[in-house]
Structures are given as structure tokens and as C-alpha cells.
Specification:
Distance between the termini: 40 Å
CATH superfamily: Glycogen Phosphorylase B
Oligomer: single chain
CATH class: Alpha Beta
Number of helices: 9
Helix content: 40-55%
Amino acid sequence: MSIAENLNLHRKCNLKLTKNYFVDYNKKNFEYKKNNLRNLLFLSPPITRAKLNGHKGFLNTEVTQKEILLDIISICKKLEIKLFLRPHPSENRSNILDEYGQLLSNTVISNCEKTIFEDMKTKSLVIGIASSVLVYASLLGLMSISYEKKDLNNIFGWDEFGVYKYFGIKKIDSYNALFRKINNLVKNINV
């Protein structure tokens, strides 16, 4: 059973998470370097598409996908971190470029032909919004942050299930807090 399937099962059954249900991925295949925070993988949150498709968790959210993306771009620019963007499975590279092309001039966008694990390889930090990929990243030893700004806070109920604490995923709810966290990581790691 995959991690995502287990999370869904635990979400449905309201059970406490235990590590012995999860696959232990081979960490040796990753080139994660704790002494170099110079690249960040951002998992595109499909907020716009979710709203258009009537996903009830997103219908009344005021935070936009563009706002989240602008926050990440701004932080990466200020801290001189290379930004890699991975479109959500419901999106593709051309959708992202059509909608946000001018904003992404210094961003590497995944062509999605790679697996998510290939996109995580050599990244120092993974940021998303309550994405199961954050669980994978955490299990692989990568720093993982769930950026749940304003009304995105706990959008999928991960607080109740203890996902953040259990997997060591840092939950952050504001631009300033995210900037401080990444800035501190840069200062502490790049010595």
C-alpha cells in the first residue's frame, strides 16, 4: 500500500498514523546535501483548477494560486535560491506557462515526464500545500514545508491526523514566517 493510499485510509478511518504502514524508500538514490540550500522544489497547488471544478474545500478560499506563487518567487529571488516548479498532476507545463509565463522567467518548470522522485533529487527543500509529496520528501530526508496561507490553513484536515508532526513537515501560514524560516535555513545550512 502506498503512502498516499495509507493517508486516505487513515483519513477515512480517523486512525492514528504509524510508520510501519509506510514504504521505506531507498534514500541512497538521493543526492540531498544538507550543507547547500540553493535550490527549492515548489509543488504547484491547483487552487484555480480546484475552484473551477467545484472542489468544496477551495470554493470559498480567497488566497489565489498566483498569490502563493508570487510569495515563493519573491523569497527565492531575495535569498538567491534557484526555484524549480513541479505542476500538479491536474496541470501541465503549458498551462502553467500560459497563465504565469512572465512571472517564471527565472524558474525551472518540470516537464512532468520525470517522476516526482526525479524532480526531488538534488533539491534542498520541498514546499507545497498539504501535498502527499511532502510526506514522500520528508521520508527521504528532505526538509518539507506546507505553506498554508490564510484560508488554506488545514484545508485537508492534516492537523487532526497529526501528519505534520508525525512526518516532520513544517506548517507555515504567512509570507513573513515562510521568509524567516527559509532565510534561517540558508544561514544555518550554508556556513
